[in-house]
Structures are given as structure tokens and as C-alpha cells.
Amino acid sequence: QTSMKNMERELVCPVCKEMYKQPLALPCTHNVCHVCASEVLLQHGHLYCDPTSEPTSPAATPSPRSPRLGRRAVPKPDRLDRLLKSGFGTYPGRKRGAVHPQTVSFPCPACQRDVDLGERGLGSLFRNLTLERVVERYRQTINISAAIMCQFCKPPQLEATKGCTECKSSFCNECFKLYHPWGTQKAQHEPTPPTLTFRPKGLMCPEHKEEVTHYCKTCQRLVCQLCRVRRTHTSHKITPVLSAYQALREKLTKSLAYILSSQDTVQTQIAELEETVKHTEV
């Protein structure tokens, strides 16, 4: 158990503190998630191409053509996508309005050193496919070794096949049907994979199928991590979902309090109008 925990610590990204997703190998031999690396660059003022285009291994070879191409008229979407992937225009390391290519200094969160990524920034890094496979195999091993039993079966318990976020419990097939009878409100509960730790079901981004974590005040919509690093939200005001929720809740609470305090006055005015109508009819 201790060795598995030690191994798990080695598979955690130093930025998001979760298991690596599309890890990139830095020149200092440490690794960082693709999305996390792009967020760090954005925080340091570097523009980054759309992270939905996955990094490759090896990275795309830089084209020898002039980087001034990025200042020409906006090309067609397919052409723009090819330019971004090949390293032209506003790529990592090119700050907005820069005349000459600049090298990117990336602050490694693991060794606390500024690592030089060259002119192409993340475009010059290799995707660590070996580490990615190790993470995937570790996930599979954990799922196989930790069998989850039904919490409602009479002994001997059967292995759980379904989970319910609303009930915060895991069920076998028969118990799930028993505790979610047809025609009741519980029948609307959606089954999920069984687990021992139920988290509240989060809203999913319809575009990237990732859980939304922030709220864009400019667009007035929820955004996920991938949405945040896209150009469309570069200069927008983005706050965590919890902060936006609390602010909107306070605003609604004040509005409701005002409406409720005015309710008696409105009801009195309605009664007076009804009396006036009756008197006019007579």
C-alpha cells in the first residue's frame, strides 16, 4: 500500500496536483500537464495556440519561413490552424506586438528554476508518452485491485456495478433497481461507475466535455480549463465558479429581500384597486 502511494505521488502534476494528462517533458527532465503548461505561459503574458490540438512526439519541426507571416491578413481557419501548429504567428514565446522572436523562460514548479524553451515555447517540447502510459496503467491497476462491494446487499455481498451521486452509494444491479423504483423521483437518478468517494456531479463543458471550473463575466457563461486558455477569453474577466456563485447569490438574496419587503404594500394597493373597481361598477 505504501509503495503504491509513493508511486502515485510520482504521477501527480506539480501544478494541478492531479495525475498527468498529456504530460510534456521539460528540458530540466521534469514533467507538466499540457493544459497546466499553457496556463503558466498565459499568466506570464505569452500567447498560446489552441490547446485542443494535441501535442505530438516529437514536436512539430519549425518552418524556416519568415515569422512576419503572423502579421499578414488573417488567413482561413484551416490555414491558421496549420500556421499555429507549425510555429508561426503568435506562438509561445512571441509576445503580442513583438518584432523579433523571443525565447520563453518557463518557471518549472518542481525544481523552481526558469527553464529556457527556445523561440517556439511549448511547440518545441516532447510529449512524454511513456509517462502517459504509466499513468493509464496505474489507473487500471487501482480500479482492478479495489473492488467495490454493494452497500445494500445482505451477506454475502455482491460486487457493485453502479453508483448514484444523488444517493451517494454504490449498488449491484438488483439493489439499484430496488432502491430506484420506476415511477418515483429516484428513478430519474442517473447511474455512474461505482466508487467509494462520491463528489457532487459537476456541470460539463459542452464543447470540451471537461468539468467547468470558472465563470467568464464578459461572456456570462461557465468555462472549463481548456476554454480558459483559448484566445477568445484572453482579455476577459474570469473568476472561479465558487466566487461567481457567491456574488450572484448575494445579489439575488438582496433582490428577494426587497421584493418580500414590498409584498405587503403591493397587496394593499391591489385591494384598494379592487374596491375602486367595485365602487365604479356600482
Distance between the termini: 88 Å
- Total domain count: 3
Number of helices: 7
What is the rounded Rg? 27 Å
Mean model confidence by pLDDT: 75
Order of helices and strands: HEEHHEEEHEEHEEEHEH
Strand order of the largest sheet: 2-1-5
Q: How does the overall form come out from the CA principal axes? A: flat
Which superfamily, in CATH terms, is the homologous superfamily of the largest domain?
Zinc/RING finger domain, C3HC4 (zinc finger)
- Work out the strand percent: 5-15%
Instruction: Give unreliable regions as ranges.
Output: 48-100
CATH architecture of the largest domain: 2-Layer Sandwich
DSSP strand count: 11
CATH topology name of the largest domain, in short, is Herpes Virus-1
Main beta sheet, described?
3 strands, antiparallel
Class from helix and strand fractions = alpha+beta
Helix content percent band: 25-40%
The CATH class assignment of the largest domain is Alpha Beta
